[in-house]
Write a structure and sequence with these properties.
Layout: H1 2-29, H2 31-43, H3 47-62, H4 67-77, H5 79-88, H6 95-108, H7 117-126, H8 130-142, H9 146-153, E1 160-163, E2 169-171, H10 175-197, H11 206-220, H12 223-229, H13 233-264
Antiparallel strand pairs: 1-2
């Protein structure tokens, strides 16, 4: 076990050392500051564009690196960008949320063509074309690209209630609140999966899929309704969950009606 572990650590150590050299060069030359300036200029200070551009840079810089080195490089280069520009935009971001954001998109680079090391490994097992495998895998991954943005805008999923005056994380310690967040997240994931696959209790048309995406969005980001209307976020999430149940019940009722009609015929 120790021998196998040592052998596996060789590649990680080399990649981490190489990543450390890159990080050192970037920091000593002030390239991180240029990253901040470049993203700020292109995004015009818009936090949404900042996150999108940071995600793209994460995927570009993360191609070809192992998981551990990938995260180290992404966290060192891009996390300060999000924190700095997010602070300038008046958005208080817990550091763990920012790290999870860059971690996700850094890992996404593992099957991003043309490098896509994970795609090459999967293609070797499946005896398939690595480029086509990478493109297909990247297509599937991009469907879940909303999740890292949820970490930024809904930190309750990370059990974070907010930050205190000194910038320390305030954790959610209410069991009922945690249970509520968990149930809302589960329903949101079911809604997202149904919208992606086009199937819930039965097949979904385009309007049904849009309804599933809307329910998912309201459960994950209730602030979209809370901020302009003042409706409490819990009320928004309960209403979205009720719509989820109602939609499921409506589909099941239609299935029973069609089954009854088929039996009569």
């Amino acid at each position: 076990g120790l021998i196998a572990g040592s052998r596996n650590m060789i590649a990680i150590a080399i990649a981490t050392a190489a990543a450390g050299i890159i990080v050192g060069v970037v920091q000593s030359t002030g390239l991180v500051g240029r990253f901040v300036t470049l993203i700020e200029v292109i995004s015009f200070g818009n936090i949404y564009l900042v996150l999108v551009l940071t995600a793209i840079i994460c995927m570009i810089l993360g191609m070809g690196l192992p998981t551990t080195a990938n995260y180290i490089l992404m966290a060192s280069l891009t996390a300060p960008v999000i924190v700095t520009l997010g602070g300038d935009a008046g958005l208080i971001l817990p550091l763990i949320a920012v790290h999870l954001f860059v971690f996700y998109f850094g890992i996404l680079a593992d099957d991003t063509p043309p490098v896509g090391l994970a795609a090459y490994a999967a293609a070797a097992i499946a005896k398939a074309d690595p480029i086509r495998t990478g493109i297909q895998g990247f297509t599937y991954d991009m469907r879940t690209a909303i999740l890292p943005f949820v970490f930024i805008y809904n930190t309750e999923l990370l059990m974070i209630a907010g930050l205190d005056a000194e910038g320390h994380v305030i954790w959610i310690d209410d069991v009922f609140k945690l249970a509520f967040v968990f149930v809302a997240a589960v329903i949101a994931m079911f809604s997202f999966a149904a919208g992606i696959q086009g199937w819930f209790a039965s097949k979904l048309n385009i309007f049904g899929r849009l309804a599933m995406f809307a329910i998912c969005l309201l459960l994950f980001l209730p602030r979209l309704v809370q901020e302009p209307t003042g409706i409490p976020r819990e009320v928004v999430q309960v209403a979205a969950a009720a719509a989820f149940v109602a939609f499921y019940s409506w589909q099941k009722l239609n299935m029973r009606k069609r089954a009854a009609q088929s039996g009569e015929l």
